[in-house]
């Protein structure tokens, strides 16, 4: 499997899977860091379990690259990873859910370079295959935005290349307010030019914004319509603003209003087996 940035700009083969991925999956990315990917991912996982209505549904989760980790008992640990595992009820080894974790809160390539480490691509591949073989569906969460560099040895290897190499459909989480048209349109354009399948947008009304600032943002009334016009991609859900005290995904807590808004959409229809590259 070869990672690419375009038809003439080749990147050295890095992610070689020891076995094909066969289960349905969804890759959740965003227009930026802090845009709400983890909250949306956890709410989707919660909705999938609720809609299963008692049927056994083995949900696998993976955040292949995570930064801002802290020292744990068995190595670096990261809050987003534990949040995904909690809401999926996923009991896979943490090393499979997050095969590459770094302490520095920066892009993985920069964090790895600062720690004097190289990216262990075989560990990423083995983790994905192990999760695929033990679960009925797999949700993968990216890191930062789509042009975040992953490997210090290959600065042009970004989240886009990982998405394309895996072949899963992509959900883009974007902000709801001023500026989202530009950032979201560029994100979708880059993904589609690379050959990724963008299957939906989720608008996240950022928590913690000043109420006066929200009241003055006239773009909130039109951004959904214009996002769909500009990208041709449907906005599947608008995540409401949440009380900061009600939001601690790493401790299993998400505002019920957020969970209810996400649960109104049928997310299982978005999960598809990866397309071979």
Quick gist of this model?
This protein is α/β, with parallel strands linked by helices and about 280 residues long.
Task: Walk me through the structure.
The protein has 277 residues and is of the alpha/beta class. The protein has one domain (25-270): P-loop containing nucleotide triphosphate hydrolases (Rossmann fold, 3-Layer(aba) Sandwich), CATH 3.40.50.300. Helices cover 35% and strands 20% of the residues. The chain contains ten helices and twelve strands. The protein has helices at residues 37-51, 79-88, 94-97, 108-114, 121-134, 159-166, 180-194, 211-216, 223-231, 256-263; strands at 25-30, 59-62, 65-66, 70-72, 75-77, 100-101, 137-145, 149-151, 154-158, 170-175, 198-204, 235-239. The strands form four sheets. The chain has a six-stranded parallel sheet, sandwiched between helices. The chain has a two-stranded parallel sheet with strand order 3-6. Helix 7 (180-194) links the parallel strand 10 (170-175) and strand 11 (198-204). Helix 1 crosses helix 10. It is globular, with a radius of gyration of 18 Å. It starts with 24 loop residues before the first strand and ends in a 14-residue tail after the last helix. Mean pLDDT is 88; it is low at 1-12.
